[in-house]
Design a protein that fits this description.
alpha+beta; Fusion Protein Consisting Of Minor Coat Protein, Glycine Rich Linker, Tola, And A His Tag, Chain: A, Domain 2; 2 domains; 4 strands; elongated
């Protein structure tokens, strides 16, 4: 039993060492996951189409529901008791009938007036909504592309913000860097110039790495000219600004 136990221990140890040596000699390959940018309707795009930035889509806005009819209850005329009803004359009956007809006509006029006021209020509300809502396709008033969105500057700002979220690093409490960016006609960053900074070197390096990362996947400017833009970088924030 003792010899068998020793032989089993030696075999298991040898197998373990062999597996350890094999793992160091041939490390497992890890798949590199790339970041892909997907533009949807409400995200900035490089070359937006012409349209209205306030329009939600091409679907026509549904008209408001019809105004409910005004229900005005007509009070029932007071009827005399049995003794009085026996004593009424034919003249009194005719007078009462004409009075009821006049009262019913007056109530009908009031109902028509209330319905007209409700319809006018609904139409006025629809006119206000049409004045504040764009018409046609969603896009930019001066756009000439085929996609809905904002403009090329907003597109660059969005890409820089996504990249800065991955490279964000700083030492100070409130670092800030202003960068003048130049993008060539092929979509490559040809120059970046720091015009103002709070002095946080780690954050400046993070901003430069973010610009390089975003610059690898930019589309060319739709104007086919060199793009210039000034951007303000803060931790997890990129905005268009001037120093």
């Amino acid at each position: 039993m003792g010899v068998s136990f020793i032989i089993s221990t030696v075999i298991h140890l040898a197998v373990f060492l062999l597996l350890l040596w094999w793992g160091q000699l041939f490390p497992p390959t890890m798949a590199v996951q790339e970041t892909y940018y997907v533009d949807v309707v409400n995200l900035p795009v490089a070359n937006p189409r012409a349209g209205s930035p306030t329009q939600k889509g091409d679907n026509a806005e549904a008209p408001p529901p019809p105004a409910p009819e005004s229900t005005l209850s007509m009070p029932s005329p007071q009827r005399p008791n049995a003794k009085g009803r026996a004593a009424t004359t034919e003249k009194d009956e005719k007078s009462e009938t004409s009075s009821d007809a006049a009262f019913a006509e007056r109530m009908a006029k009031l109902e028509n007036k209330a319905a007209s006021q409700q319809e006018e209020a609904a139409l006025e509300q629809l006119r206000k909504r049409l004045r504040t809502t764009g018409s046609g396709k969603a896009g930019m008033p001066a756009g000439r592309g085929s996609e809905a969105g904002s403009d090329y500057t907003s597109y660059i700002q969005s890409r820089l913000k996504d990249a800065l979220n991955q490279t964000n690093d700083y030492d100070s409490n409130n670092p800030m860097v202003y960068v003048h960016l130049y993008i060539g006609t092929d979509g490559k960053v040809i120059r970046q110039k720091i015009e103002q900074s709070t002095g946080d070197k780690r954050f400046e390096l993070a901003v430069q790495r973010a610009i390089e990362m975003a610059g690898d996947k930019l589309v060319p400017p739709p104007s086919h000219k060199v793009f210039e833009g000034k951007f303000r970088f803060r931790p997890k924030e990129v905005s268009r600004s001037k120093p």
